Recover the amino acids of this structure.
């Protein structure tokens, strides 16, 4: 997928804020300390997919979902597309699109999932379907899907964005562009993300 330089810079800034997050007791830092102290794993991602699934398990699950006509290949040929009518957080049934694609580690197991939400009826002139309005709905939707803790706000380069942590599962919401809201779902106990949640940092008083 093509990404603007500004968006790539923001993703980099998100990683930086989580690397330095343990240096002070922000709402995010407190939440991570509390969740990791529970020792409870939350590996579920979506549609029966979980952290630790192998590449073969991922494609096998998507094949089964495709046979049931629940998902299809995404428009970029690199993602999986899930289209549905949402009535959980919208007053009227609303056509939505979710594109998702996993990140695999060196053992070919899922360590994170990138998701992109948008409205099927999006158009530049339709103010109700822009990403700033969608971000609010996505946040509500994710709380209904995943339950658990509410989102807290993090800040990087004067940009605020919501973060939700339940056990080892971290969910970050970012506005990608006028149409798309991006959601990053990560296993913060995986070595790929451990730099942001080391025991030493989160033991600070």
């Amino acid at each position: 997928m093509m990404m603007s330089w500004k968006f790539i810079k923001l993703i980099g800034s998100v990683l930086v804020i989580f690397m330095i997050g343990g240096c002070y007791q922000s709402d995010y830092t407190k939440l991570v300390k509390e969740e990791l102290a529970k020792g409870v794993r939350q590996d579920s991602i979506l549609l029966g997919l979980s952290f630790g699934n192998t590449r073969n398990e991922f494609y096998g699950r998507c094949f089964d979902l495709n046979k049931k006509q629940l998902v299809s290949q995404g428009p970029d040929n690199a993602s999986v597309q899930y289209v549905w009518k949402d009535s959980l957080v919208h007053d009227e049934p609303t056509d939505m699109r979710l594109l998702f694609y996993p990140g695999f580690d060196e053992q070919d197991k899922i360590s994170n999932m990138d998701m992109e939400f948008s409205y099927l009826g999006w158009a530049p002139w339709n103010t109700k379907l822009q990403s700033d309005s969608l971000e609010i709905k996505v946040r509500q939707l994710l709380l209904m899907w995943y339950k658990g803790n509410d989102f807290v706000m993090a800040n990087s380069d004067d940009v605020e964005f919501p973060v939700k942590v339940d056990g080892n599962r971290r969910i970050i919401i970012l506005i990608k562009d006028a149409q798309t809201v991006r959601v990053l779902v990560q296993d913060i106990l995986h070595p790929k993300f451990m730099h942001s949640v080391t025991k030493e940092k989160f033991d600070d008083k």
Residues 5-20 form the longest helix (16 residues). Strands lie at 44-46, 49-50, 72-73, 80-86, 94-104, 110-119, 152-156, 159-166, 169-175, 181-187. DSSP finds five helices and ten strands in the chain.
